[in-house]
Structure formats: C-alpha cells, structure tokens
C-alpha cells in the first residue's frame, strides 16, 4: 500500500517516522501546509492509505468534502501521538483500513479500533466477499441493507447457478431467486428485491465490417443481452480475429466498456469445434468463423474451456456471440 502519514505535534512526527520505518511505500508529509490542504492533495494523488496522527475531529472535518464512495476512497487511520489507539476511520473493508489498523497496532504495541459491525460480530463482510469472487455489486444501497440484515438476523439466503467449493458459514442456499437476499447470477430477474452480484464470466465474440462505429457495437451487444435476459455488467472480456486489431470502433467500444479484448489468429479460431461456419467469412479472413470461436477462446480459464451459450447474431455491420467462463465461488 502507498501510505501518506500526516502529523501535527513533535511527538506525532516522531511516531510518523517510526511508522514509515516499519511500513514499505510510506512517506511522512513534512510540508509546511495546513492539514486540510495535505489531506486534499493526497486524496487527489490517490494514495492507498492516509494515516493521521492527530485528533479524530480534525480529520473528520478535513474529509467532509473529499469522500466519494467506499470503492474509490483511500482508507484513513487516526492515531494518538503515543500510538496507543489505531482507529480505522474510513474505508475499513474495501480500502483495507481495518487490516492496516490491526497490522500497525501490532507493530506499535497499541490497540486497533474497529467499528464495522461484521468484523465485531464475526459475520461475512459482503463487500470483501464480492471482491474476492470478482462479483460486481449492482446496488451499493442494497449492499448496505443486506449487510445490516446479516448482522441483525445472523444469516442471508443466497441463490446462484454457479458452482462453488464452499460458501460463507452465514449464507444459506435457496432453490429459487424469489426466496433470496443475494442473487449471484448473470441472468436478469425482474421484480426482485435481492442484492444482485454479477460474476465476471461472460465473454463476447465480435465480428464487423470495416469502419463500424462504437455506437453500432454498443447497440448490438445491448440488444443481444436484453433479448437473452442477461446482464451486460457480467461481461468480463471480448474477443475477435487479429485482422480486426486496428478496428477503431471496436477498440473504442471495448475501451469505453472498460473490458479487455483479445485478438486471435485464424488458426486459433479454426481450432474451436462446434461453432458455426461461413464460406463468406472463410474467403475473407481464412477463418471459418469469428464471433463464436473468439467468444469461446476468450472464455478459457485454468478450470477449462469456455462454453458457447448464445450463437452468433448478425446486424448490418456487427456480428456477436456470447460464451461463459467456468468459475467457482469460494467462501
């Protein structure tokens, strides 16, 4: 973690130097600037953690205009100048504040102060479990609501079609989505109050005519996923033939989607079995097909080959198909 330490008093500055001797990638901010300016500057430069050796009230006031959300915010710790208490103030879970507080307290001989309910009660931290399994949280408000329900009732009901080796001890598997508090799936289930956690496991194979715009790619993929009742935010990557590696509209679309795209040689595409073939595509590219085999290849993992779940569909300038990766949930 990249850590910035800010202190006010002479004793605090001594502790700051001690912390940075104990922690890698750590710096003490010795600039002659107001505390609020230092906080804002480190926030802007996106350090992973800000350690403040001062009164908690000062830090709270300084953070009031900086906080965005738990996914983006760095963690913030507050310490007294003797290092007796190490308070995880902000971004305790996803930002790593709780674990850093425990680590620092151990090294300094102090007491970590953790207030997040799941840590105190021993229940699963939903945000950390989702990140561990690369699950996209569709609604942050519902994440908070379900986390509270887990603490209050002791368990949550989960529905998923995914395979799993094990699940957290406080998750109870149910057989229907309408019974669930949590739904881990790439499918759309309408009129459901559950928290949807989307696995990163759909791969989309793309083919196109030259000069196709990013808007045409977006429209095609959105239509395909809508018609199939699948969630676009469960897409993990795209694939196509290497002849399209300079296709600007395709690159712009996948870049906008913030998902990687892999390009495959015709020999790789031709090695994929049980996919549709086209004489026209073969004559133009040397590959028997593009969208379907590219989707399958993009879905390969250490667990095995991808599975084609939606065969190619053609629009005026775009062809698209969908495959799914083999993944397993873990506790």
Shape: elongated
Based on CA atoms alone, the radius of gyration comes out at: 25 Å
Per CATH, the class of the largest domain reads Alpha Beta
Q: Please give the CATH architecture of the largest domain.
A: 2-Layer Sandwich
Q: What is the number of independent domains? A: 3
Major beta sheet summary: 6 strands, mixed
How would you describe this structure in keywords?
Rossmann fold; Udp-n-acetylmuramoylalanyl-d-glutamate--2,6- Diaminopimelate Ligase, Chain: A, domain 1; 3 domains; 5-stranded mixed sheet; 12 helices
Task: Give the gist of this structure.
With 331 residues, the chain is of the alpha/beta class.
Describe the structure.
The chain is 34% helix and 25% strand. It contains twelve helices and 18 strands. Strand 16 and strand 17 form a beta hairpin. Helix 2 (35-44) crosses helix 3 (56-63) and helix 8 (214-228) crosses helix 9 (248-256). It starts with a strand and ends with a strand.
Topology:
Elements (H helix, E strand, L loop, with lengths): L2 E5 L2 H13 L3 E3 L6 H10 L4 E5 L2 H8 L11 E5 L5 E6 L6 H12 L2 E3 L3 H5 L4 H7 L2 E3 L2 H14 L2 E5 L2 E2 L6 E3 L8 E3 L10 E5 L2 E7 L5 H15 L6 E7 L6 H9 L4 E4 L1 H5 L8 H7 L5 H8 L8 E8 L3 E7 L3 E2 L2
């Amino acid at each position: 973690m990249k850590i910035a330490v800010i202190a006010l008093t002479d004793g605090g500055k001594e502790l700051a130097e001690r912390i940075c001797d104990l922690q890698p990638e750590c710096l003490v901010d010795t600039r002659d600037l107001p505390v609020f300016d230092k906080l804002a500057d480190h926030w802007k430069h996106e350090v992973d953690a800000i350690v403040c050796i001062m009164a908690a009230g000062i830090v709270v006031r300084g953070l009031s205009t900086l906080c965005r959300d738990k996914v983006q915010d760095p963690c913030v710790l507050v310490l007294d100048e003797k290092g007796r208490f190490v308070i995880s103030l902000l971004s305790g879970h996803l930002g790593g504040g709780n674990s850093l507080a425990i680590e620092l307290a151990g090294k300094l001989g102090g007491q970590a102060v953790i207030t997040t309910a799941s840590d105190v009660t021993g229940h699963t931290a939903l945000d950390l479990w989702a990140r561990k399994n690369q699950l996209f949280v569709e609604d942050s408000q519902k994440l908070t609501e379900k986390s509270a329900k887990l603490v209050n009732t002791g368990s949550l009901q989960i529905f998923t079609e995914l395979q799993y080796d094990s699940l957290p001890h406080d998750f109870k598997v149910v057989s229907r989505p309408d019974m669930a508090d949590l739904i881990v799936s790439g499918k759309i289930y309408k009129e459901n109050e559950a928290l949807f956690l989307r696995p990163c496991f759909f791969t989309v194979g793309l083919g196109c005519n030259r000069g196709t715009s990013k808007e045409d790619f977006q429209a095609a993929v959105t239509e395909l996923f809508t018609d199939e009742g699948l969630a676009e935010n469960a897409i993990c990557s795209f694939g196509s033939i290497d002849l399209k590696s300079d296709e600007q509209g395709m690159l712009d679309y996948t870049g906008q989607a913030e998902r990687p795209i892999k390009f495959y040689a015709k020999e790789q595409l031709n090695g994929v079995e049980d996919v549709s073939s086209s004489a026209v595509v073969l004559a133009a590219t040397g590959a028997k097909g593009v969208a379907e085999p590219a989707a399958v290849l993009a879905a390969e993992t250490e667990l095995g080959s991808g599975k084609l779940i939606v065969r190619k569909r053609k629009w005026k300038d775009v062809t698209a198909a969908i495959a799914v990766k083999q993944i397993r949930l873990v506790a």
